[in-house]
Design goal:
9-stranded antiparallel beta sheet
């Protein structure tokens, strides 16, 4: 009898050990499953963040830059009444409703420029104020677009990546060509989807360029009156750093100086 009882006890103990082993296996499997799920969720979140960041930069150029065209008209009122300026945006009166002339030097390339304070008073007031405050020297031209329908160099971002300045933005869109055509040498303000997302960034069209007119186009502040050919041959001709048609220029380009009078 004693032997039989010992055997039964051993069987029960063995079954209990097996049950605990299987329970541990189940818990471990659930932990692995949860860990894999958490890793997938984290990966998707990181991918979304990366896509959004890339989209924010791409959007600046997918919608276009420009110079005063015959059909260009000034826009004096925002398309969305809820939009407003952010930060210390200067009064349009700073533009003095006049033509400003000066020199923009990129690397060692001197560009003569003309800004129209009458057709784009708010944007010109902002750029003139940035120039007077010494904002532009050492800022980069972070993006070169060499698409079939548009060739553009974009400069002046706060952090050198093309993302907007969260502490400073303004609108409305002014002097945007109704036909979306921006002649070679046009200087215009970059923006995101909002008419009030303009900040310090501007772009120069390196050839006649066509951009969508959705959302009102892009504020044209003036034009390059001399030196554009040198910019094209020394920067644009070298292409984009990664060999694509849109990205950082192969020739690293920095704003040496920007003067206006």
């Amino acid at each position: 009898m004693a032997s039989s009882k010992n055997t039964e006890r051993e069987v029960r103990e063995a079954r209990e050990r097996l049950r605990r082993f299987r329970a541990r296996q189940t818990v471990h499997a659930m932990q692995l499953k949860r860990r894999r799920r958490d890793n997938i969720v984290a990966g998707v979140a990181l991918l979304i963040v990366a896509v959004l960041a890339t989209t924010a930069q791409i959007y600046y150029f997918s919608e276009g830059p420009g110079t005063p065209a015959p059909s260009a008209t000034a826009t004096d009122t925002p398309t969305d009444e809820t939009e407003a300026n952010v930060g210390s945006v200067p009064s349009p009166d700073v533009a003095e409703a006049r033509t400003w002339t000066g020199e923009l030097v990129l690397n060692d390339i001197a560009l003569s420029v003309s800004l129209d304070g009458a057709l784009a008073p708010q944007a010109v007031a902002s750029v003139v104020t940035d120039i007077q405050n010494g904002y532009y020297p050492s800022k980069t031209c972070h993006r070169l677009l060499l698409a079939e329908t548009a060739k553009v160099l974009q400069c002046g971002s706060l952090d050198g990546t093309g993302l907007g300045d969260t502490a400073y933005s303004y609108g409305p869109i002014e002097n945007a060509p109704e036909d979306g055509v921006y002649p070679a040498g046009t200087i215009a303000m970059a923006r995101a989807e909002s008419a009030y997302s303009q900040d310090h960034q501007f772009f120069i069209t390196l050839s006649d360029s066509q951009f969508p007119t959705d959302g009102g186009g892009y504020t044209v502040i003036g034009s390059v009156t001399a030196g554009l050919d040198t910019l094209v041959t020394q920067v644009a001709a070298a292409g984009v750093a990664d060999g694509s048609t849109d990205g950082a220029p192969a020739v690293a380009t920095t704003i040496t100086s920007f003067t206006i009078q």
